[in-house]
Amino acid sequence: MEYSVHLKNDRFLRALRREPVDCTPVWLMRQAGRYLPEYRATRAQAGSFLAMAMTPELACEVTLQPLRRFDLDAAILFSDILTVPNAMGLGLYFIDGEGPKFERPVRSPADIDRLAVPDMETELRYVMDAVRLIRRELDGSVPLIGFSGSPWTLACYMVEGGGSKEWGRVKALALNEPAAMHKLLGVVTDAVIAYLSAQRAAGAQALQVFDTWGGTLSPSMYREFSLPYLTRIARAMDSGAPARGSTGSPRTGGDSPRTDTGAHTPLILFGKGNAPHLDALFDSGADAIGVDWTVTLEDAARRANGRVALQGNLDPAMLYGSPDAVRAQVRMALDSYRDGNGGSREGHVFNLGHGMSPDMNPEHVAVLVDEVHRYSAR
Amino acid sequence: MEYSVHLKNDRFLRALRREPVDCTPVWLMRQAGRYLPEYRATRAQAGSFLAMAMTPELACEVTLQPLRRFDLDAAILFSDILTVPNAMGLGLYFIDGEGPKFERPVRSPADIDRLAVPDMETELRYVMDAVRLIRRELDGSVPLIGFSGSPWTLACYMVEGGGSKEWGRVKALALNEPAAMHKLLGVVTDAVIAYLSAQRAAGAQALQVFDTWGGTLSPSMYREFSLPYLTRIARAMDSGAPARGSTGSPRTGGDSPRTDTGAHTPLILFGKGNAPHLDALFDSGADAIGVDWTVTLEDAARRANGRVALQGNLDPAMLYGSPDAVRAQVRMALDSYRDGNGGSREGHVFNLGHGMSPDMNPEHVAVLVDEVHRYSAR
Description:
Two copies of one chain form a homodimer.
Chain A: H1 11-16, H2 37-46, H3 49-54, H4 56-69, E1 75-76, H5 83-90, E2 92-95, E3 99-102, H6 109-113, H7 125-138, E4 144-149, H8 151-160, H9 168-176, H10 178-202, E5 206-211, H11 219-225, H12 227-236, E6 267-271, H13 278-282, E7 288-290, H14 297-304, E8 309-314, H15 323-340, E9 348-352, H16 362-376
Parallel strand pairs in A: 1-4, 4-5, 5-6, 6-7, 7-8, 8-9
Antiparallel strand pairs in A: 2-3
């Protein structure tokens, strides 16, 4: 590959390995988005959200936009969470203000039998091209995160045919036809593993799985229909022992910029509402667990006890507060992690507990990012 | 008062006092609702949702409808959660498919200064008239539950002017103007206490507070902006020591129908997403805590350790499952409670973890109710 193999800023990757950092790294879920006027301009130019996501040059442009404004420690591929089911033939489309929809949702065991893992370098080539282009454009400034939806979360949209308040249809399928549901989750998991592996091969330096809807499940259903598939992904991506506690590995020493080619590519499992399941997630084989704001980082870090890094967890709504309120909330979250992590800030990636919203103020994002760096460097 | 003072079925009140019962009592949040054709007929007759809620005869009719179909152990007043802010002058209205809205939301400290506790027997007389009418019509068959939204939940709608995905405006007010927010919550709490007291005086035999949106707060914000007001309500309603563990009280002995006039009126605090806060809620002074399905009843009961009764907690979406799946889920929830409660089913009120939806099948509700009684009577 032709990319720079030296990262100018590797704070994010070091934090995922629980190594010392000069200050806590920060990125924000949905940091590329409608709250930025330059994003809205690119979106208007593209004509539609899907055209933007499926054109590598435009996906690259919006990926880089927040990095030009804010001192963020990672870029995240701009894409849609539903690219994989779309490539499986479900027919993704968007109606403004209504969120994503599928023309051909999965409703029966026969529908499930027809599903197959798509080819990553043909049907999802636009995603891999975007990853390659972004890596080139980033030129080693910060690492690039690739991502996928979790199997349960993708299955939610695939069965419902779009978003839902209750996810009644997919839960009914799980209850009434558990074997069919496991077959669906199995093929989706194979596709997610292929998708993440292809993004890694194309240049993604870290990977995140979004289990946005796992937290809507009861504990017994979560343990049956979400957790095992997250664990399978974590094991398959080989994000187990080598990355954790391996400060002595050839790739991880020193403070100077370092090569990352060939190193283990860390995996983050983010789950909204995953607090009841943290102990299982800590043992999943993932390098880091992303948590929302309904759990304190102190509690999560204490329970993790050094097994993984943690990512999170400010309530995105805190960005509606004044700059002073944002700073106070940032400090509280940083201190909460440190208090639960034996007094050390190592192993923490600062983030929100969920994605940003269109009506947020970019100036408050700058305040947040700067306060994370300033306060944690002390 | 002219009502019958003998309850033919007092299972629900006995369970709230953690007394022995012949089987576990059950009622369902939003058991009166659009999933019933007879409800839709009354709604059409009324012309609007608000007209139905504000006409005691119609509110009484829809309250009683589910009891004619199902062997439920309690009735719950049919009303809207936002009657109190409406009586405070905010101008409640509904647009079909969009949920409730306020014409004059609370946006500034000056708006808050203008708020006052409404008079219950004038501005909210239609609610009290409905309670009196329902009590008369129930004729002692089952107890009637009165209810209110929690202060935080009411403040959410009052500040946003309607529902919200993120509650950014109300959280911003809490962050930026905490003194104003506490003033708002203070006057709303006074109003809620007056409202619940008036319902009790009118004949409600149990009371429930719905903290629907407390679970969207971080733990520190929950402890500041929701919990203290729930606790104040519980203490003010005097639902403390007298009801708990007082099996020797003159009102609670024996298996035969008994008088309830003048007895302590139990209070249930329900909170969606309240699992992280159960220990504090168990000490709030409430008689029972209602939980959603993201926590197991086994875990909740173990943590409660006899301090309170528990209400819950089936995922409402389970009603989309087949009758056999519904039965299996019911048995699992019943056993989960028993396992956490030292092998006893006492102190459990079966319910969903959230309200029912319009597209649910009434036949599945019958299956659920009958299975609760059948299985727990063994």
